Amino acid sequence: MKSLSAQLGREGRLQGGRELIERTIWKYDIPVPVVSEFTLLLPTGAKILHIGVQYDAPRMWALVDPVEELIDYHFIVVGTGSSIPWGPLLSYEGTFQMYGGGLVCHVFGVGHHPPMLSSK
């Protein structure tokens, strides 16, 4: 199997005529102390790749097209054992742990954006 770079033509197209679309991975801070709701500005069509802890703070990594318009993405954070306002507008995005596992939180997207790539 040819590598991706070997498949690219001079015009940045894959064999078969499909265009290669450039994306970037951006990192976002999840507010601390952990709040139940927060909003981030992400480019339209952003895909959440991972939620985790880096340098003792919760973070979110997203695959984005940096030229797209920035829009509000809404999220809620729910601790393990807490009630959750479940409904069709929620999509699970990821879980993070802090304080040696003493705090476990689950992040859900609210509304218009698709779930993270690995949950499909």
Radius of gyration: 17 Å
**Average pLDDT reading:** 82
Helix content estimate? under 10%
Number of strands: 7
Q: What is the end-to-end distance?
A: 26 Å
What's the domain count?
A: 1
* Binned strand content: over 45%
**Strand and helix order:** HEEEEEEE
Q: Summarize the main sheet.
A: 4 strands, antiparallel
Features:
3-stranded antiparallel β-sheet, globular, single chain, 120 residues, mainly beta
Description of the structure:
The protein is globular, with a radius of gyration of 17 Å. The protein has one helix spanning about 5, and strands spanning about 25-30, 35-45, 45-55, 55-65, 70-80, 90-100, 105-110. It contains 1 helix and 7 strands. It starts with a helix and ends in a 10-residue tail after the last strand. The chain is mainly β. The chain has one domain (about 20-120). A 4-stranded antiparallel β-sheet has the order 2-5-7-6, with no helix packed on it. The chain has a 3-stranded antiparallel β-sheet with strand order 1-4-3, with no helix packed on it.
